[in-house]
Amino acid sequence: MDKDSLMSIGVHCAVENCNKLDFLPFQCSACHFVYCLDHRLPTSHNCTKWSSIDKYLPVCNICQNILKVDEEHQLEIYKKHLESKCQLYVAQPVNTKIKCDFENCGVEELLATFCRKCHKNYCLKHRHPIDHKCTQVEKEKIEADLKKQEIKNLIQNNFKNSTASTHKTTTPAIKKKGKKLNPKIELIKMKAKAKGDAGIPMKCRKYFRIYYPLNSKNESENLPLYFNESWSIGRILDKAADIGKIVNKNNSNVREEKLNLYGTTNNGNRLPMSDNLLDLINSKVIQDGESLILERGDMDSVDIANYF
């Protein structure tokens, strides 16, 4: 082998005032330049990139060699290196060039970048996943988008089922039972949507959610309404029936056809027709913001669980 052929095998040290030809060169993991044995460490060639990156190849404080580790087991490997008296996990000098796996690239480097996503080697130009169009990253993105769409579809389906359940007409026997509604919370909600006589002064308005008779066309509906605190229960009943378009036969002599109002604070007991609304509130028989049940019949009380 002639001198020229021999010289072509080695690589010159990148340190300007060194330029030593080394046949077993080291490539810095931070700046990616190639150095001789004397300048292989980031500290020995004043590496400008070493402090700005995660030191994936750390330097042993005792032997000053670069260690070959991975991010997940760095401390464990460093410990084993010390226990072996600085013999294990020492990064070996690179003397074989690795070809870039990016399509139609073909660049060969002494120390290629290994992609942990697709498990291939790439040159400096194509080292980032976006630069080599990493198939695994794209696959993960597609899977994430599909998962996001599945969650979106699940939410939409649950919302549709919930809406359908809300408007489904049922019979008293299969009526879904629920807890009593908190009047204070209901009051806040009702004030934003309640209907009533616009001529009633704001300070005189009392709010209630009216549930309509079972087996009527409005059975599964309830309306937030407001009434004048000076009205009697009888007048409130008439107004609620009118807004809900419920046939009012209270002028007839047939008790079973007559409408009555029932409270929920008083456990579903019938409210006297002649009693004043404000008086009932002050005596805590009912509360501003609670639910009232409009039902047909001559019952002294109703089972409030059948209505909500």
UniProtKB/TrEMBL annotation:
Keywords: Metal-binding, Zinc, Zinc-finger. GO terms for molecular function: zinc ion binding. PROSITE patterns: ZF_AN1. Pfam families: UBL_ZFAND1 (PF25327), zf-AN1 (PF01428). The keyword Repeat does not apply. This is AN1-type domain-containing protein. It comes from Neocallimastix californiae. GO terms for cellular component: cytoplasm. Residues 7-55, 94-142 form the AN1-type domain. The keyword Metal-binding applies.
